Every structure is written in C-alpha cells, then in structure tokens.
Amino acid sequence: MRKARKMTPQEKKGSALIRKLDGKSESAQRPILDHIVALKVHAVRPLTRALEEGMTFQVRMAVALAMGEVKDERCVKPLVVALADTSLNVQRMAAKSLAQIGPPAVKALQRALAQDDDNVRRWAAEVLGHIGRRDVAPDLIERLPNETPEVQKAMVVALGEIGSTKATPCLILMLASDNVDLSRFAAQAIGKLKDASAITKLINKLESPSADVRKECAEALVKIGIKSVPALTRALTHDNYVVRRWVAEALGNLKDASAIKPLLIALQDENVRVRRYAALALGEIGSNDAAKALQKLLHDPNQDVRFSAVKAIAGIGSKDSVAPLIAALKDSDWVVRMTAAQGLGNMKEKKALDPLIESLRDPEWSVRMHAATALGKLGDAKGVIPVVRTVFDEKDNVRRCAVEALGQMGDARAIPALQRACKDSDTTTAALAEQSLLVLRTQLSVPEPPRRGRRAAK
C-alpha cells in the first residue's frame, strides 16, 4: 500500500488557512479565501481534503468556491462528487465552480450524466449548458427522453444554451409535455436555437391552458424572426381566439410590414382581446395607413380596445394621428384621455393647442397633469396663462408638471406664478419651481431681485 505523500509547507499553509474558515461569515471568509487561492496548485490537495472530510457546510461551500477560482483540472473530480453533497448550497457552489473551470470539466460531467443520483445528473446537465460545448449535445439528446422531469428540465435548458439545432426534434417533443415547466423551458430553448422548423409546433402550443407556456411560445416565435411572419399571419384566422391574440402580439413585436394588412382585418375581430392586440401591433409596426383604420376603434364599446387604439395611434405619430388623438381627449374613460394627451405632447402638434388647453380643466388630475406637460413641450405663448392657472391646482402632481412646463415655455409672464410656487406646501413643487425660475431668468436675462434685509448696491 502506497503511503500518502507528505504535505509541502505551502500545502500545510493552505490547510491552516482552511481551518480558519470555520465559524466565519462569508464576508469574513473572503480575505482568507484570497490567500488560499493565491497558493494556486499548492491549494488543491488541502482543498480536496477539506471538501471530502465532511467539515461544516459553510466551510465546504467556501472550499468549493475557492476550487473554482483556482481553476485546476485536479479540482474537477472532488467538485463532481460534491454535486451529491447533503447541502444544496454546497451542490450549487460546486456546480458554479465546475462552470468556472470550463472545458477541462466536460468529460467528467458527461460521465456524471450516468450516475444514479438525480441531483448529480441535474447539476451536470446544467453545468454542461453553461460551458456551451456543442459536442455534448448528442449525449444530452440521447438521455433526455428517459430522464426524470427535473433532470429533463435541466437538460432542455442546457440544450438551448449549447445552441445545436440537432436538439430541435427532441425539444419539440418536450414542448408537447403536460408538465408546464418542461413545456415552458422547451419553448425557451427553441427560441434560443431560432430554428424555423419549430414554428408550426410553437403556434399550435399557443392553445396551451398555461399563460406562461403561451408567453414563452410567442417569444420564441419572435426570436426566430421574420421566418415566423407568414405562419403567424395565417394564424390570425385561427379558430381559437387565444391563439389569434398571442399571434397579434408576436407580429407587433416582429414589426414586419407584411403583417399590416392581416392585422387591419383583425381590427374587426369578434373578440375584444384580439382587436386590442391587433391595434397595439399596428402601433408597434408604425404604419401610417393604420392610423385611419385605428380611428374606427375609438368608438369601440370596450375601454381596453379604445385605449389600445389611442396608444397605437400615438405610437405611429403621423399627421393622420392628430385628429383621432384630439377626438380621444373627449373619451369617457380617463385613461384614454390621458394617453391621448401624452401622444399629442410627444408629437408637438400645434393643432392640439386649444384641445390641450381645454384638458387642463379635465375632472381627472392625471389628464390635467399630462396636458400641462404636453403644453410645455409645445411651447406656444397661447398656452402660458392657462398653465399658469394650473400652478395652483389642488393636486401636487399637476402643480409639479405645470411649473416644469413653464420653465420650458420661456415666457416672462410665468415668473410671478413661479415665485409663488417657490413657497408651495409641497417641497417637490417648490424645488421644481425654483429650478424653472432659474432657467427662465437665465433665458430671458432677468436679474434676480434683491432678498429682503439686503441693501441694494448704490
């Protein structure tokens, strides 16, 4: 029997440092770990012994962390063993360190995929995904169908990170699973692969009873890109309104002009959600032709549809957007009116001046607030006095926006109102008024008046 090699002075130093880790917090352990890691190859033996000898889980965690920072290939074996540690935190740290070591750990991790312990196989798959070597994909693909659900999830995620389209067929099988998490992870992985061969299956899965699965499938279709557009536009006539709703959202995120005509037709869909998301999609694409069609939705009985139409029209921001946004300032729903005011302010359209001035008297404070902001952006002299009156609004948020707007408008008539607002009971309003007053005086070259109790210079 061979005798164990005696430890070198440097290794003994490492062991002594490891003993000091016991009972210390993570922050207190850090300086000690730095000294251990600085020993480099001389730290491997004492670290391995500490990980195997069953010290407290806090020490084993710290030791596993140090092994990842040392990045010596000899640390791989004990770290793989630690994937079965009784402490989940030690397992997690061992996995993290194996990922840091990287390619030298791959073969050991592949062997670990055959171990009996579910935790070891799950962590091994996860680490292989982080390392990202494509040559391990066939091994994961072969093992995937016969694995437990938890290990399958880790393998599915890993295949997405590795990026080999060889995995697409088995991921499509996982997509069809009744296990919601497994199906969701499969959709995520397919999205990362951007494999167009999965488009039809992803669209079909938009009928899933799980909103999370539907969301991931829609996002995967967007990640695949414009290759998804033809199939998505056809799916706008799907029998299931849930599919049509998610398809409309995906087309909006893809922003492809070829979807405009099908989306315009979808504005007349019998389902409220489909009409709403078709409107939002047209706003995302930014079609000038859509503004007129969206105007019809301003009379929709559903508030959400009207809101989506106004938001889309504002997003398009064309000349054809002005009239419907002005009309929306009269909507019965305050959210619609507020969104219209925001849109008109961003467009800085002079035709909106009088309607926005009128909106300063809106019963809903949010509308008044955004109307004041919009008038500040317009910067028209006609809006100054109406905004001055708004400086004395009952709502703090409205007063804040009003004083900021006056600072933008560059008109001396705002100075007295801003001086009064500097004494506002709301400290934020007062501070904003002082800032706007300073801006105005600088722009207009108006000197600051002398303070009380200070003699004017002779």
Task: Record keyword descriptors for this entry.
458 residues; Leucine-rich Repeat Variant; mainly alpha; disordered C terminus; 28 helices
Return the string of H and E elements: HHHHHHHHHHHHHHHHHHHHHHHHHHHH
- Biggest sheet statistics: none
Fold-level CATH name of one domain: Leucine-rich Repeat Variant
Radius of gyration (Å):
32 Å
Strand content: under 5%
Helical residue percent band: 55-70%
Mean pLDDT: 92
Low-confidence parts: 453-458
Q: Which CATH architecture of one domain?
A: Alpha Horseshoe
What do we call the CATH homologous superfamily of one domain? Leucine-rich Repeat Variant
Cα distance spanning the termini: 105 Å
Secondary structure category: mainly alpha
Give the beta-strand count: 0
Compute the number of helices: 28
CATH class of one domain: Mainly Alpha
Envelope shape: flat
Descriptive notes:
By secondary structure, this protein is mostly helical. Among the domains are: 1-133, Alpha Horseshoe (Leucine-rich Repeat Variant); 358-445, Leucine-rich Repeat Variant, CATH 1.25.10.10. It contains 28 helices and no strands.
